[in-house]
Amino acid sequence: MYRALFITDDWAAKKALKSGLLEGGFTATPVESAQLFREEFAPPEKLDVIIVDLERCATDSGKLCHALKREPPLKELPLVLLVTEAHLGRIDFGWGVDDYLTLPVSPKRLAERLHFLMWKLHRVASKNGFSQAGLTIDFERYEVHVGGALVDLTYKEFELLKFLALHPGKVFTREVLLDKVWGYDYYGGTRTVDVHVRRLRSKIEAGGCAYIETIRNVGYKFLKSD
Length: 226
Description:
CATH topology of the largest domain: Rossmann fold
Strand order of the largest sheet: 2-1-3-4-5
Structural class: alpha/beta
Largest sheet: 5 strands, parallel
Number of helices: 6
Radius of gyration: 20 Å
CATH superfamily of the largest domain: Response regulator
Strand content: 15-25%
Number of domains: 2
Number of strands: 12
């Protein structure tokens, strides 16, 4: 089930879309546009996409989109606009927009487009990086962010995290991890794996979100997203 932040100033008018999204595999959390500019605003955790109903938002479109793309974790999420045909010319992709649909739109059509966007982003991410539940791994830059904050990892910590993340849900023994990450010619013991996993967890799980699970008497696995 994907999680969407649905920004609209008239949620009652979008009840059909809400139920349709739920049937299509998306839970939607409504937020009024003005809330984004309040100091106490805190977005829900583990979001996958942001939907903005420009037809029902009193806030200026550009100002609203820039606010969403200003701070983590929202700025890292795909942004989809719902807009009337009369306002299509006002869309500026410099706002960080990933996709848009013209209103009126059926719940089925919206869910289908969102699923396609999720698939497309996942395909690109699998080549250049990885993202799950606030954890982002950039394979090209050798950077890891948690909740938008850069995490300082050693080379082996990064390679270990990358290998596990690319095989979510699969259990690896310490011997296999030693071979895949350190290489067959490494002469150290499997204790090295335990030490690196412990250090890695202390860095990426400090915020309370677990990514790596210990399988007793076997090894480790990267937890799959719900």
